[in-house]
Amino acid sequence: MGFIKDAAKEVGGAILTGAIQNALGRIGDKGQEQGFNVNKMVSTINKSGIAKGSHFEAQIVPPVNKKFDMGVTENLLYRCESVDLPGRTLQTIDHRFQNYGPMSKIPYMAQYGDVSASIILSEDLREKEFFEIWHNMIQNTGTFESGGSDTLGGRYSNAQFNNKYHSSYIGTVIIRQYGSAGDLRSIHTLREAFPINMNPITMNWGDDAITRLSVGFAYRYYNAVYHKQDQAGLGAGFGIRVGKGGITGSLRLPGFGTISNSGVNALPLRKKIASAIF
Fold first, then answer.
1. Which residues are bridge partners to 175 per DSSP?
2. Which residue of 63, 222, 237, 255 has the fewest CB atoms within a 10 Å radius of its CB?
3. How much of the chain, in percent, has pLDDT values that exceed 90?
4. What residues have CB less than 8 Å from 238, skipping those under 6 apart?
5. Residue 263 and residue 82: Cα distance in Å, rounded?
6. Which CATH class is domain 51-225?
7. How many CB atoms lie within 10 A of CB 125?
8. Angle in degrees, 0-180, between the axes of helices 70-79 and 126-138, rounded to the nearest 10
9. Contacts (Cβ under 8 Å, ≥6 apart) of 87
10. Position 244 pLDDT exceeds 80
11. DSSP code of residue 200
């Protein structure tokens, strides 16, 4: 042990010295690695909690156009059953810094992968119509036109299948992620987003399941905001308040949210407040 410490001092580098000291801190007097500490693991989890995949909402904001039903736009907030948080890949090229030896990968561009969302459809498929309208703004698909070309010599309209300007059809997708108590923890905003694909919907006489529409969004880039929660008291908690209406109390249970004496879970209310703020 003393030899290694003296060698680190002789080398002199602060980074090297610190690295060796950190390594020695994990080794006991007998030179063996200390065992796994369950208490530290539990303490770490209690400190920052565990993210739940079900604690989210996705707000889809289309480009400004009077053809969109604003009621459908609001309903999508509650009918988006699942959504992907965006990812990113760094594109690289191989480069050798010296005349010989292994190659190194040098990043030169970021590539953003598409995001998929699953939408629970209304009985009249108004959500599908919403994305049909959006696609029609990107390229005149002819979905809402009664004419078209056929074997009898009919002719397409001049504007059919023409692409529109990029700035006229891009929107925004905002994905908010919440903690177990309903408090906002992160926001991912997809910039210059638009639906790149609508997957087919299978209809089946022998299946009475809920019908969903899977939509893929392309976007240019995304912004992310994270709200830290490294603080004590993220486990179960109880609060009480005396006011004009009498005595009120609330109970916080990890994984369930906050329950008040009125029997109302605070999660939906907090989500609405967070939506109004962000």
1. 58, 188
2. 255
3. 47
4. 249, 250, 251, 252
5. 27
6. mainly beta
7. 13
8. 110
9. 112, 113
10. no
11. -
